[in-house]
Write a structure and sequence with these properties.
Blueprint (H helix, E strand, L loop, with lengths): L8 E5 L4 H11 L3 E7 L24 H7 L3 E5 L4 H12 L3 E4 L3 H7 L3 H5 L6 E6 L15 H6 L3 H5 L15 H24 L4 E5 H8 L1 H10 L19 E5 L5 E5 L3 H11 L14 H6 L1 H12 L4 H7 L7 E3 L10 H5 L3 E5 L5 E5 L22 H8 L4 H9 L5
Parallel strand pairs: 1-2, 1-4, 2-3, 4-5, 5-6
Antiparallel strand pairs: 7-8, 8-9, 10-11
Helix pairs in contact: 1-8
């Protein structure tokens, strides 16, 4: 793969997933990412299991940590000490991008706000990730993707089945964080291009609320026109479908096949062949586009019975010749070995320090036809001595002195 970010250094002062996952993408693309962690506890993500919000299993691999911290170097710094912030400034002077999700009040207290960092490097691209945006009454409020991306943006209501009386959780941990991270990575790439062409270093802002609104952008635009919130239709509305080739059908093994043929009547001849429904070729109910639409509820029931007669794997074989648009519905374990995922290297193995493999989803942008090979995330302060010695030129006695005084890990 072409390392498009090779030669770019990113300095990260951030925790959890949203912002760290952005620099993980840049690391996948070849950037040198230095992760600054709290001098005692490290990134709060390391202790996620203690919060009780997610079961990390019994593996030695912290999968969520690896997802958002792959390929980085770690240094533990006490940013509340004069010596610690001085080291950060020295690193910033040697970096292209400074990336943080610290709240405005924390940035001011620690003296790592825009003007503080740019006093040591006017050309640095300063990037802020936030829960609810950099302005307004909640600019200094913390937020996770469950809040800003999911609950606040309309996405949670939009995903709520009509018949239930509770708000659904996100489909997976870090769901909005990961989408937001790709947005940040794209913003950084654009900012680097702007700096290269104009000499100006932009300030970049991305919020979970903004990313959630963008993801719901089409629904919000429709709501603005109709005056009604976007919501899931009741199950009974499926009886009134006007396109039987747009729906999700259960297979005999309690799995599903999803059809999304927006031009249903156009694909009806191919569907008849794939579904062994050629006996309906002369059925007047489906003989024209208007009749197809009018009688699609009848056809939906017929297709449901047919697809329910065989397992999903069999349908994947039988539908290969179908000209319309379809896919099997997969769960998060099945996709790892999905042939299309494997062929495109969308999931590859990274390796622990003991050379044991574990799967990670690769960054979704590929260059020159190759997926970036994910590398494991750093141990706490794994590269501290290297960064202080090789990057900043401190001798060993100076490093030991900083360790003794608790400035570095």
């Amino acid at each position: 793969m072409t390392a498009t970010m090779e030669g770019i250094r990113v300095l990260e002062v951030a925790e959890h997933t949203f912002v760290p996952a952005a620099s993980a993408v840049l690391a996948d693309w070849g950037a040198d990412v230095i992760k600054v962690e709290h001098v005692v506890r490290g990134d709060a993500m390391r202790g996620l299991a203690s919060t009780g919000v997610v079961n990390l299993g019994t593996s030695k691999v912290h999968a969520l940590w690896e997802h958002s911290n792959r390929g980085k170097r770690s240094i533990a710094l006490d940013l509340a000490s004069p010596e610690g912030i001085a080291i950060l400034y020295q690193l910033a002077a040697r970096s292209d991008v400074f990336l943080t999700n610290k709240l405005p009040s924390v940035r001011q207290r620690l003296a790592l706000d825009v003007e503080d960092i740019r006093a040591h490097n006017p050309r640095i691209i300063y990037v802020r990730g936030s829960g609810f945006g950099p302005r307004g009454p909640e600019a200094d409020s913390g937020g996770y993707d469950m809040l800003g991306f999911w609950a606040r943006s309309g996405a949670a209501i939009g995903a709520k089945p009509h018949e239930v009386d509770h708000i659904p959780m996100m489909p997976g941990p870090g769901f909005g964080d990961s989408l937001g991270a790709m947005t940040i990575a794209g913003g950084i790439a654009a900012a680097l291009f702007h700096r290269a062409t104009t000499g100006e270093a932009p300030l970049v802002d991305v919020s979970l609320l903004g990313v959630g609104l963008w993801a719901m952008g089409a629904a919000i635009a429709l709501s603005g026109q109709t005056g009604k919130p976007w919501e899931q239709p009741p199950a009974s509305a499926k009886k009134f479908t006007r396109n039987a080739l747009a729906g999700v059908y259960a297979t005999s093994d309690r799995k599903w096949i999803a059809l999304t043929c927006l031009q249903g009547f156009h694909y009806w001849p191919s569907a008849r062949q794939a579904l062994s429904l050629e006996h309906l070729a002369d059925d007047e109910r489906f003989a024209s586009a208007a009749a197809f639409a009018e009688h699609s509820p009848d056809l939906s029931a017929i297709i449901a019975d047919v697809i329910a007669s065989a397992p999903q794997d069999e349908w994947c074989q039988r539908l290969r010749a179908f000209r319309g648009q379809w896919t099997p519905v997969r769960d998060s374990l099945e996709v790892i070995d999905d042939p299309q995922v494997v062929a495109n290297e969308y999931v590859l193995d990274a390796f622990t320090a003991e050379n044991e493999p574990f799967p990670l989803v690769t960054s979704p942008v590929q260059f020159d036809g190759a997926a970036p090979q994910p590398r494991r995330g750093p141990d706490f302060n794994q590269h501290g001595d290297q960064i202080l010695g090789e990057d900043l030129g401190l001798d060993w006695d100076a490093i030991v002195d900083l360790k003794v005084r608790g400035v570095v890990g």
